[in-house]
Amino acid sequence: MIPDTQGQAAKPTAKYRSQLRIYVDMMYVIQRESNQAKPTRILYGANLSHDRLVKYLEELESLGVIQETGIDDKVYGLTQKGIEFLNNFRRVESFASAFGFRI
Amino acid sequence: MMELIAFVIAIAVAYQALKAYNLSKEKTLLYLNLSFVLIGAGLLVDGLASLIVLVARVHRGFLYLFSVGYTINFLAQVLAYGLLVYAYARQARSLTATTEALAAVPVLFFERNAVTELILIFFLVYIAIQTATNYSVNKNTNSMLVFGAFTSLSIAHVFFLIYTVKPLFYPFAHIAQLFGFLLLLAMLLRVNRPA
Question: In the CATH scheme, what is the code of domain A19-93?
Answer without folding.
Answer: 1.10.10.10
